[in-house]
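PROTEIN DESIGN WORKSHEET
SECTION A - STRUCTURE
LENGTH: 473
TOKENS:
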């Protein structure tokens, strides 16, 4: 009897990813996994990519910062890395130059010497030491001084001179309207006379330096923050506002409503028309009158570690934190909803409208654009690596091709059946995509059971949607 081969119809379908999520391990985001459905393609790993509004593009990166003569500042700081960078104006060989300096994680102040082409240690400010700039006036002349809050000493740096005044133990400090403010336990706020930072802690008349008692049952103060020409005092479980007049007699202090969790002081920072801070129950925006939980989808929680950093760069608030997996940086948008997490940015700090960090053994500037390279990849590559996708679980699938929408250019690599982990050239297909009138298509023709996408946006490249044509075998 003659036998005939039975032919079964194959099943073709299109699966659409109408957005991308660069946030690793995010909850509440679905991937498209079956025919006729759309969803969001979620990252398993992400190096420097941004998915604000669902569009995939390059995020923030770094570029080398240079001295006024154009030379980069290169040194080995692995044993005691920078915590905060700042700049000093010094006179060298009769010329005023901009000199970099930093406080290390162990609290040592290092100042760069152009003659020696190296950093030199000057004084210890303690692990909680912090630098700030205060603008002082002498008649019509205004000049900037740098103050270092160093536990029981306040250092003042101006030009090539370093002065200090001994104080009670300072827990946190800030500058506002030519005055220096510092909090000392229990519940006392020291303030200097206007334009006289070294008068901090010295009792004087009502128009000079002095101290205020802060009656509160909301714990100790953990941060002072200048915001919209007022000084906000962040306690462990509350916020107060100090209106600073020209005379100390005009100081007015009042409490602000706050019902959130315990505040982490080292995360408090001004961000446009908001102040950002982290509490034990999440991230908050504070507008001077009320605090509101934000960035709920990021699910960032303090780990209990004391080391946090913050800065503003490229219109975003950068917050360094530590979780169970190690040190990371959250990149937060001003809308209070969107953001992503990237790797740790060492020495993250803003000074004179520049955001500094320590990367690749040198001082770098956090930025975006053509000159930037990804800060969390040794090769400086911007890359989005998706989770594994099963188009028909338990069945082999032919991935026939891709239709993409976007601008500019990007590289798309398709891996099958664990080829990414094995780094197998046999199990991958790399496609160079250039968009014409916002569209591009690519033939893949790869068989497998599970797939993973590696997307590398080029400078100016944006990927908005990706449709995948599949055929169940």
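SECTION B - SEQUENCE
RESIDUE ASSIGNMENT:
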């Amino acid at each position: 009897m003659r036998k005939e081969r039975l032919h079964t119809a194959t099943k073709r379908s299109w699966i659409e990813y109408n957005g991308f999520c660069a946030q690793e391990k995010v909850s509440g985001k679905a991937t498209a996994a079956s025919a006729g459905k759309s969803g969001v393609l979620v990252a398993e790993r992400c190096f420097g990519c941004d998915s604000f509004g669902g569009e995939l593009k390059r995020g923030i990166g770094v570029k080398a910062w240079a001295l006024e003569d154009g030379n980069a500042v290169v040194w080995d700081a692995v044993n005691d890395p920078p915590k905060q960078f700042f700049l000093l104006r010094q006179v060298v060989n009769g010329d005023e130059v901009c000199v970099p300096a930093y406080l290390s994680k162990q609290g040592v102040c290092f100042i760069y010497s152009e003659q020696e082409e190296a950093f030199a240690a000057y004084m210890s400010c303690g692990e909680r030491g912090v630098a700030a700039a205060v603008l002082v006036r002498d008649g019509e002349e205004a000049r900037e001084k740098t103050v270092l809050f160093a536990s029981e000493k306040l250092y003042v740096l101006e030009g090539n001179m370093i002065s200090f005044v001994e104080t009670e133990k300072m827990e946190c400090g800030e500058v506002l309207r030519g005055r220096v403010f510092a909090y000392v336990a229990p519940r006392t706020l020291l303030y200097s006379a206007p334009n006289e930072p070294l008068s901090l802690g010295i009792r004087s008349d009502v128009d000079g330096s002095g101290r205020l008692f802060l009656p509160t049952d909301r714990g100790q103060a953990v941060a002072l923050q200048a915001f919209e020409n007022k000084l906000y005092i962040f306690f462990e479980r509350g916020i107060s506002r100090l209106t600073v007049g020209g005379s100390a007699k005009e100081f007015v202090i009042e409490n602000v409503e706050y019902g959130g969790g315990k505040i982490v002081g080292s995360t408090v920072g001004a961000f446009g028309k908001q102040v950002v801070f982290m509490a034990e129950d999440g991230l908050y925006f504070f507008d001077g009158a009320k605090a509101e939980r934000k960035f709920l989808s990021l699910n960032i929680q303090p780990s209990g570690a004391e080391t946090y950093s913050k800065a503003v760069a490229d219109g975003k608030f950068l917050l360094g934190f530590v979780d169970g997996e190690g040190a990371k940086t959250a990149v937060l948008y001003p809308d209070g909803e969107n953001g992503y997490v990237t790797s740790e940015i060492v020495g993250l700090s803003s000074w004179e409208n520049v955001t500094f960090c320590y990367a690749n053994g040198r001082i770098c500037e956090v930025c975006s654009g053509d000159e930037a390279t990804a800060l969390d990849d040794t090769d400086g590559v911007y890359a989005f690596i998706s989770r594994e996708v099963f188009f028909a679980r338990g069945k082999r699938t032919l991935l026939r091709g891709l239709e993409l929408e976007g601008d500019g250019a990007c590289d798309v690599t398709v891996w099958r059946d664990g080829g990414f982990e094995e780094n197998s050239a046999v199990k991958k297909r790399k496609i160079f995509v250039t968009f014409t009138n916002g569209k591009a298509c690519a033939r893949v023709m790869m068989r497998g059971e599970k797939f993973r996408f590696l997307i590398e946006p080029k400078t100016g490249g944006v990927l908005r949607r990706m449709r995948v044509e599949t055929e169940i075998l």
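SECTION C - NOTES
Confidence is low (pLDDT under 50) at residues 1-9, 25-36.
Helices lie at 419-422.
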